[in-house]
Amino acid sequence: MTDQIVKTVVLDAPVSRVWRALADQQEFGQWFRVKLDQPFQPGGLSTGQMTFPGYEYYPWRATVERMEEERLLSFRWHDFDERSELPISEQPTTLVEFVLEPIADGQTKLTITESGFMSLSESRRIEVMRGNTEGWNIQAENIAAHVASHGQ
User: Fold this and answer.
1) Cβ neighbours of residue 41 under 8 Å, at least 6 residues apart?
2) CA 149 centroid distance within chain
3) Judging by DSSP bridges, how do beta strands 59-68 and 72-78 pair with one another?
4) d(Cα 25, Cα 152) in Å, to the nearest integer?
């Protein structure tokens, strides 16, 4: 069994535009459907509330690991297991990485990788990987539509 999900999408926008959609908390919140309480900053805690339909009761909690302008954004986010007695701050994390690469005609190749599923309990791991695989497919469509409709 693999320990990661990898999703690659070609976006009809330059790297600078895609970077802004990732790194700016307001823009990230628009396409990802989360209301974030503070800007992303390396080493900083990011908290908020999901606004994605059906998941509005899910809290958002992540620690930003790296921000390399127009190249990489990564964070560790907590798997919210609503059945767990542990607060979200004590629940396991996975690592999410967004890697940007400029390609021909002003487009951007965005690779989204989520890894570290082995940190989740065995009983939960497959369920989370399936759900997050579907989720990244949806989020890839969301960011594509966002950068295409919000100009340079």
Assistant:
1) 64, 67
2) 20
3) antiparallel
4) 17
